[in-house]
Amino acid sequence: MTDLKHGDTVLWPDSQYYAKLEKLKLLIGRKIYLIEAVVTDINAGIHHTGQAYTLLAIVDYPLPDPKTGLLPHNIILDDGRGINLGRIIQISIESAFTAVEKNIIYRNDVLLDNLFPHYHPMDRKSLTQISKTLLANILGETKSVSAVQKISNKTD
User: Fold this and answer.
1) What does the angle CA 80 – CA 84 – CA 86 come to, to the nearest 5 degrees?
2) Alpha helix stretches (DSSP H) within the chain
3) Which residues contact 131 (CB under 8 A, 6 or more apart)?
4) CA 143 to mean position of chain CA atoms
5) Are both 140 and 109 inside the same structural domain?
6) pLDDT at res. 122
7) Does one domain contain both 97 and 77?
8) Which domain holds residue 132?
9) For residues 49 and 38, what is the distance between their CA atoms, to the nearest angstrom?
10) Number of domains the chain is built from
11) Alpha-carbon distances, residue 152 vs 8, 128, 136, 140, 156 (angstroms)
């Protein structure tokens, strides 16, 4: 990951990091839902199981590094893993999928913007739109807008 800049100033961690960390500390002992970044030398992906984990602790990470995106803290989960906050896209409570904004306790906006610029949470409306567009492409419609409109008229 490259240096994160705002103008000529390097911002790392981002200005909201410690506020998010304090909110996260209030969840120790509670169930949380994770969306993790899986970053390798050749690609990046998102791991989202929908499984609830108990947050056991938040510990200092001794080797934070803005170039690799490793932040100053790890979370410890009940499955035995310790995950650096720099590898977590989102932590929410109450719901694994389509979490409402008030239930999103931690979101790594810098990671999202740098590695996944086109990421958006899946909700019923976006899934419907994507499905209709893909179906239109499968059916051979060259103009996806007109195909989506035709499919919408048939399903409404």
Assistant:
1) 150
2) 17-25, 109-115, 124-138, 144-155
3) none
4) 31
5) no
6) 60
7) yes
8) 124-155
9) 13
10) 2
11) 48, 10, 11, 16, 6
pLDDT tens sequence across 110-144: 777 776 666 666 667 767 777 888 788 888 775 54
3-state secondary structure of 83: strand
The pair of three-digit structure tokens given for residue 150, joined into one six-digit string: 């035709």
Residues 71 and 147 reside in one and the same domain: no
Mean pLDDT computed over 81-95? 91
Nearest to 116 by CA among 59, 58, 35: 35
Count of beta carbons in the 10 Å neighbourhood of residue 14: 16
Structure confidence at residue 99 (pLDDT)? 72
Handedness of CA 125, 97, 46, 135 (dihedral sign): negative
Give the pLDDT of residue 31: 96
| DSSP type of residue 100 | -
The pTM for the full model equals 0.67
